[in-house]
């Protein structure tokens, strides 16, 4: 009996080198960018597609300076996992909106300066 | 890719790396920027391959030729420019640094991979050996090493307005991690990107005592037997 993999499933593999990893990262990034309008319509998000793309870029930039290949592999796996879960509609609005918490919730940001943190009464 | 593009990319790079642009004195920043631009495999644009040696934490970036009186000391200023994650809240402390996977010599950058909140990298962790219960003679609980999270100054406890229950925003309160030895605890803390300090235990001093020391000959008039 043939077992059909789910839509967007990808066989696990390790990157052979940093060049290979770089190509995979850029491919993953392009897939995400192309999927941004789809995500907006699927989850009925009240933000422009550019905001979603900025968030995608932000999440990728968070790990720009990773120096180990194995870490990059795990991050690529996580990125594709999120991609599959989002586009297969396995997520719910909560799960997608958690990435936008800092934009939606004014209390969820770190202070910009010492004085602002002091006046907020931060830890 | 003329000289103006190079200069602009250099400025962008130094500006985008808060470890260089905010904390170092001006002369060190200039020196470090010059060191960066002189090496060959540096990312100038997003099209360049990633620098495999370690990004902005590689030894070349960290050498500073001019250091003031506090050179080499850890910088305790909070870094307000870190990328906050979705669990940052009103009570989150501001970290001094956040692990980004570019640290040299680290086996597993678990802080990057574990998905733990960034707040945990802002909080200090105490590694210590819990003392033996003074009311009993047994030392059964006093051999392992424990990791405790320092209490948040705001949000660690307040009274629930409806029922008067004790509420807390500190998700690590009451969490202990136990380890077999100090090195394990320290490795875990560095791997997870925690700021830690180790509190050395007060070891119990046991003197070997014998009943016969009371009868040992001493030339002086008053016999002195030390039992402590």
From TrEMBL, chain A:
InterPro entries in alphabetical order: Complex1_LYR_NDUFA6_LYRM6 (IPR045299), NADH_Ub_cplx-1_asu_su-6 (IPR016488)
Compartment(s) where it occurs, according to its Swiss-Prot or TrEMBL record: Mitochondrion inner membrane
Primary location group: mitochondrion
Gene Ontology biological-process entries: response to oxidative stress
A Pfam family of this chain: Complex1_LYR_2
Membrane topology of the entry: Peripheral membrane protein
GO cellular component: mitochondrial inner membrane; respiratory chain complex I
Coiled-coil segments: none
Residues spanning the membrane: none
Keywords: Electron transport, Membrane, Mitochondrion, Mitochondrion inner membrane, Respiratory chain, Transport
Keyword Membrane: yes
Family indicated by similarity: Belongs to the complex I LYR family.
Protein name (record): NADH-ubiquinone oxidoreductase 14.8 kDa subunit
Organism of derivation: Friedmanniomyces endolithicus
Automatic annotation (TrEMBL), chain B:
Cell compartment(s), UniProt: Mitochondrion inner membrane
Keyword ATP-binding among record annotations: no
Membrane topology of the entry: Peripheral membrane protein
Domain of life assignment: Eukaryota
Start and end residues of each stretch annotated as Disordered: 38-80
InterPro entries per record: NADH_UbQ_FeS_4_mit-like (IPR006885), NDUFS4-like_sf (IPR038532)
Any one Gene Ontology BP term: electron transport chain
Gene3D superfamilies hit by this protein: atu1810 like domain
Protein name stated in the entry: NADH dehydrogenase [ubiquinone] iron-sulfur protein 4, mitochondrial
Source species: Friedmanniomyces endolithicus
Lineage of producing organism: Eukaryota, Fungi, Dikarya, Ascomycota, Pezizomycotina
């Amino acid at each position: 009996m043939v077992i059909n993999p789910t839509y967007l499933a990808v066989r696990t593999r390790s990157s052979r080198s940093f060049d290979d990893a770089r190509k995979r990262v850029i491919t993953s990034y392009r897939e995400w960018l192309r999927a941004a309008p789809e995500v907006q319509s699927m989850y009925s998000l009240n933000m422009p597609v550019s905001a979603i793309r900025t968030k995608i870029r932000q999440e990728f930039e968070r790990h720009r300076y990773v120096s180990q290949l194995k870490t990059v592999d795990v991050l690529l796996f996580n990125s594709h996992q999120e991609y599959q879960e989002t586009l297969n509609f396995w997520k719910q609005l909560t799960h997608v909106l958690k990435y936008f918490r800092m934009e939606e919730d004014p209390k969820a940001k770190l202070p910009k300066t010492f004085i602002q943190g002091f006046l907020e009464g931060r830890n | 890719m003329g000289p103006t593009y190079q200069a602009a990319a250099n400025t962008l790079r130094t500006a985008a790396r808060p470890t260089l642009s905010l904390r170092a004195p001006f002369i060190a920043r200039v020196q470090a920027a010059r060191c960066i631009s002189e090496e060959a495999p540096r990312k100038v644009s997003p099209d360049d391959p990633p620098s495999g040696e370690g990004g902005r934490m590689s030894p070349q970036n960290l050498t500073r030729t001019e250091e003031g009186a506090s050179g080499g000391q850890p910088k305790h200023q909070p870094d307000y420019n870190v990328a906050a994650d979705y669990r940052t809240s009103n009570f989150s402390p501001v970290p001094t640094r956040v692990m980004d996977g570019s640290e040299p010599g680290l086996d597993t950058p678990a802080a990057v991979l574990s998905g733990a909140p960034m707040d945990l990298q802002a909080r200090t962790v105490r590694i210590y050996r819990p003392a033996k219960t003074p009311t009993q003679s047994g030392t059964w609980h006093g051999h392992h090493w424990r990791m405790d999270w320092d209490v948040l100054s705001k949000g660690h406890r307040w009274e629930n307005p409806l029922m008067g229950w004790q509420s807390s925003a500190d998700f690590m309160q009451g969490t202990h991690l136990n380890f077999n030895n100090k090195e394990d605890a320290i490795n875990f803390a560095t791997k997870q990107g925690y700021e830690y300090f180790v509190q050395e235990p007060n070891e119990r001093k046991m003197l070997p005592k014998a009943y016969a020391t009371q009868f040992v000959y001493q030339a002086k008039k008053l016999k002195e037997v030390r039992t402590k």
